[in-house]
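User: We ran a pulldown and think these components assemble together. Before we commit to crystallization trials, I'd like a predicted model of the whole complex to look at. Sequences follow.
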Amino acid sequence: MSVNNHLRDVFDAIADPTRRRLIRLLAEAEEIPLHELTAQFQMGRTAVSKHLTILKEAGLVLDRKVGRETRFRLNASPLREIQDWLAFYSKFWSTNMLRLNQLLEEEEE
Amino acid sequence: MSVNNHLRDVFDAIADPTRRRLIRLLAEAEEIPLHELTAQFQMGRTAVSKHLTILKEAGLVLDRKVGRETRFRLNASPLREIQDWLAFYSKFWSTNMLRLNQLLEEEEE
DNA sequence: ATTATAAGACACCTTTCGGTGTCGTGTCAA
DNA sequence: TTGACACGACACCGAAAGGTGTCTTATAAT
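Assistant: Here's a predicted model for the assembly, 218 residues in total across the polymer chains.
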């Protein structure tokens, strides 16, 4: 129900550094209009808007029109999928495993 | 030391579903040669090899030559970066926040 | 000695990505 | 009511992504 109807893979959505910066900005404020977000980047409004569309398709962002501006806000819950995915592998990076891998790495060179 | 010298962004490396499947396969075995990994996919050897190169560049995979085959194994520790990144946002998907966002979502449509 | 296997190294192709600029329209301000 | 602003919707572009096939070389197996 209302989850997993996403057209866009969440892993794909967070792959781009610009989009991760957008997520960060939106996490630090309730709601931010497009022109204000755009001001934080060097690229143009169209590019930022495209990134926000991708985040929307992944369910990571919601938007609403207020007057002539479009305001965006974060919806972090789809990130849970990443966390679930990670949980499976966390057993591989216990401090002991890390040390072991480093040793094997050096051994091979 | 030996960390963060990666040519490739870890977020980028795990964005592709084929690469995530490779990671999963490598998590379930000690070491797997390329031809055996290739057998698990529909695409050709060259494509699989390219994906493994990308995983290597992100530090997620190690390889060594044994006879005529190249064997790969997982090095999960770079995934820690993803976990650290996620940790910051986990406060946004507490069950209360999730319910609130769902309500706001419905309200807007 | 010969043949089959494993894989690196390329060249190549099509599609997607990440950006640009422009045009048209609704909204707010003077 | 005129002008500035915010934005969506395109069309467009170069570069990167994700595949393919082929050639060559090293290693194993017969």
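Residues 16, 18, 43-44, 46-47, 50-51, 67-69 of chain B lie near DNA strand D (CB under 10 Å from a C1'). That may be worth checking against your pulldown data before setting up trials.

User: Thanks, that helps.
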